[in-house]
Amino acid sequence: MTPLNIRYISIEGNTRSFVSHLAEYADKQHEENADKPTLKVEEISEQSDFIDETEPYFAFVPTYLDGGNGIDNGVKELMTNVLGEYIAYHDNRKQCLGVIGSGNRNFNEQYCLTARRYADKYGFPFLADYELRGTTRDVTRIYDLIVKTAIQAAK
């Protein structure tokens, strides 16, 4: 299986840390079983040159809000907008197999709100969530999920 493509944004390093652990886990899985895919990871930032995605990918996005509660009195996303712009660039949204969100459960309804909004806005599924930097169990769970999703999409 070809590597799975990951596009993510990380503000405070939590998403970067999680994706790094996910890539390490994928490498170990691939070493044990060559049929298990590795990951091809790219961080999207304000300095990124937008490209036309030609292969399927998964988006990973944390939630940072400034103003509004995201439910009944609006929402103002903060700092993660460039990933949304990247997904919206040309036809990139059509290649996205789904989004994985992260956040802090202390924020209740706002937890993973950005990922849910991207799924609604761009028409792909909200696949999973994890809190802050995630756990080892989250890494295993999300790796298995994205592999399964990629296999289903390839059929």
TrEMBL record:
What Gene3D superfamilies would the database entry show?
3.40.50.360
Q: What's the protein called, per UniProt? A: Class Ib ribonucleoside-diphosphate reductase assembly flavoprotein NrdI
**InterPro entries referenced in this protein's UniProt entry, alphabetically:** Flavoprotein-like_sf, RNR_NrdI
Which Pfam families does the protein's record reference?
Flavodoxin_NdrI (PF07972)
